[in-house]
Amino acid sequence: MPVKNTEVQYHIGLSQDQLCGARYALLPGDPGRVTPIAKVFDRHHELGQHREYRSAIAYVDRLPILVMSTGIGSPSTAIAVEELARIGIQYFIRLGTTGTIQPQINLGDVIISEAAVRLEGTSQHYAPLEYPATGSITLTNSLCDAARRLGIPTHVGITCSSDSFWPGQERYDSFTGYVLRRFHGSVEEWRRLRVLNFEMETAALFIVCRVFALEAASLCGVIAQRTESEAVRKDVYDIVQERLSKIAKTAISIHQTTVETR
Ligand code: URA
Predict the structure, then answer these.
(1) Topology of 16-260 in CATH?
(2) Does the C-beta of 165 come closer than 6 Å to ligand 1?
(3) Closest to 194 in 3D by CA, of 228, 158, 140, 155
(4) Which candidate, 49, 172, 245, 255, has a CA 20 to 30 Å from the CA of 140?
């Protein structure tokens, strides 16, 4: 019998014996999205909340899955991975929201990240900037297969993970409207380099998981279309939320089968 770790992790407030053997974690940023995601599964129970980390256990048939929020940005995401790794999580799937910078991508569409631009600082505490931030091929392929199976409009490519919502994503609707010269024209440049979208967590997730020999994938719903407007569209939240949850549920079943037949 493996010994269970009953030590409560400092930031997330969870111990291994609360996870019911879960090896998969679904990671939204927003604590408010934990229960709605868990409800899409066959059954669930809540675990509680510590700081920005709200958690629940959801099941696909008898397979337990942890749903836990990371809060916004790379530092809190890296902390989540560190502490979840210690209590037995092996597979990490981000379920986030994002702004696209490509005109062919629509509000409500889903973006799966193959890799991420490291426009943040946290991941450099784990690996030098030359090291690529890439997702797990098997986990990412499971997301792609699930999205295809469900007929959900999906785009696969490179994501830019920024440490700031306004200047790093070249948004001028900030408090002062001032954006450092270094970021002027950056959205156009990323667009020309075929980057699909901006968000704030994927690069750190990919780097920390990769250097820990854990597997990560990232799936985001489009809530801002930056070629049209800087605004975030709250009215597409529910569509995005439902799509991400359904894809994740199907992807975990696909991935389980892949892992079992390896
Ligand atoms: N999250 C981001 O970081 N940027 C957006 O445009 C939308 C969500």
Answers:
(1) Rossmann fold (3.40.50)
(2) yes
(3) 158
(4) 49
